[in-house]
Design goal:
eight-stranded parallel beta barrel, globular
């Protein structure tokens, strides 16, 4: 039986009520393969609105982040309990933009993974290196450190999204061999050091309809975490309607 392909749309801090309704309407009208899990992750104020728009559809709702505590004096943050209440099934954790702009550390990421799992929300855990690390060939050491310090042991299931920082929004992507190397290295590390066998591996970073299928077919990834292209009707439509 074909494996499910996860198409995760990270809308980041984009779209308003009108553009959201238009894009969701387009996504709902698509006839896609049953093997696709179409997951959309809007900014927080859009989550209740999207939840209502996608009722009676196959679209799955996710969040872009959560706090590592269920409640408390954390101004500006969002609780996993409300994310759960609004029917989110997934949450992106450890994105490089959170690490850079909000100074999140690996320990913060680990706490967030634990709180998500506790509340039956599936974490999509982001890892990835800078261009300098890629150049000086320290990228695997850096990714191993992220995995070691972020991922709790013996998780039942895990989704890893490999997003090289230098590829996000730049139009640059690693080679097929580079992506395959990181995928196999991550899976081996997690199985050996964290005793996790059920691992889904996504690629993210300048994903579009021109490169996604080659990456999926040649690297044997389980899907993609898509940023800018997920905001463009034609791009995300071409991906979702592709040959699965």
């Amino acid at each position: 039986m074909p494996q499910n392909t996860l198409i995760v749309s990270n809308w980041k801090m984009n779209l308003n009520l009108i553009s959201t309704k238009k894009l969701i309407s387009k996504l709902k009208s698509l006839k896609t393969s049953k093997n696709i899990k179409n997951i959309v992750c809007p900014q927080y104020l859009l989550i209740p609105y999207v939840r209502d728009l996608i009722k009676s559809s196959q679209i799955i709702l996710g969040a872009q982040d959560c706090h590592f505590e269920e409640k408390g004096s954390f101004t500006g943050d969002s609780s996993i309990l409300l994310i759960k209440e609004y029917s989110c099934k997934y949450v992106i954790i450890g994105h490089s933009e959170r690490r850079e702009y909000h100074k999140e550390k690996n320990l913060d990421v680990k706490k967030k993974i634990k709180i998500a799992v506790k509340n039956n929300i599936i974490p999509i855990v982001c890892v990835g290196e800078s261009f300098l690390m890629r150049q000086n060939k320290s990228y695997l050491k850096f990714i191993y450190k992220q995995l070691d310090e972020c991922i709790p042991k013996k998780m039942g299931k895990l989704i890893i999204a490999y997003e090289p920082i230098w590829a996000i929004g730049t139009g640059l992507i690693p080679t097929i061999d580079d992506i395959t190397e990181v995928k196999e290295s991550c899976k081996k590390f997690l199985k050996t050091n964290k005793k996790i066998d059920d691992i889904k591996f996504l690629y993210g970073g300048s994903v579009n309809s021109q490169n996604f299928f080659e990456i999926r077919n040649k690297c044997k990834v389980d899907g993609a975490l898509i940023g800018g292209a997920s905001l463009l009707e034609q791009e995300i439509t071409n991906i979702l309607k592709g040959d699965f």
